[in-house]
Design a protein that fits this description.
alpha+beta, two-stranded antiparallel ribbon
Length: about 80
Amino acid sequence: MGGIGGTNFTPVINSPEVAILGLARANHQPVFEDGEFKPHLMLPLALSYDHRVIDGAEAARFLRWVAEALQQPFRLTLEG
């Protein structure tokens, strides 16, 4: 969705999928850090999943893992 200028959306699950991860366009946003605003590159992520198959807590942990992997991609090569 980010490729066509979208910022926020909900990915739609199509059978037989049980989950889908959506990415919007990254942009710089001010983040308050150490007493001042600093620009940070933010990438909106959206995860839709079938609650009958995937536990919500597990989905949240997966989305957190994806965010951390995008922040430090070198760690993926160390963790395997």
